[in-house]
Automatic annotation (TrEMBL):
It comes from Deinococcus seoulensis. Residues 22-192 form the Thioredoxin domain. PANTHER family: BCPB PROTEIN (PTHR42801:SF21), THIOREDOXIN-DEPENDENT PEROXIDE REDUCTASE (PTHR42801). This is Thioredoxin domain-containing protein. The keyword Disulfide bond applies. It comes from the Bacteria.
Amino acid sequence: MTDPHVLPAHLPAPVDDGGAAHLTGQPWPALALPATDGTQVRVSGLPGRSVVYGYPMTARPDHPLPDGWDVMPGARGCTPQACAFRDHHAQLAALGARVFGLSTQSTAYQQEAAGRLHLPYPLLSDAALELTGALRLPTFDVPGVPAGERPTLLRRITLIVRDGVTEQVFYPVFPPDRSAEQVLEWLERHPT
């Protein structure tokens, strides 16, 4: 079994397909998403800055990864990315930023990862693809996801949202385990 905490050597880098070019300056819709902490989160209504990192799918110990996962550019690395945001959470909070993970997986599926990885921030579920569709977030379809989960997955993207409007977009995100550091560096250069 592949260790989801470790990125394999020679991981293929995703290319910028232009799928996020429209997002800077875009207001977020007034949609509430279920979170792994049991709340409903409406990012559009949060004051100040929020960091929302979209990811395809966290690995679970009881489910194999879809065939070819490691060779799909941008697919592999959700666990290292989540752990990097966990490890830098206090620094991000000190800069005034809330952190949220976002995927198209169900809340029940996400709760396993949030607990296992000891995430100090909630994961948001867009299983109905409402936010994904409203913002036109970049996606890809993958056969072989766990039963009951959506085969349409988010491409890895990190958005900084300020007062309900997308302020900064990181896309494509690579390598995923450096995503939190890239966000920290940007926030330090752009204080509120």
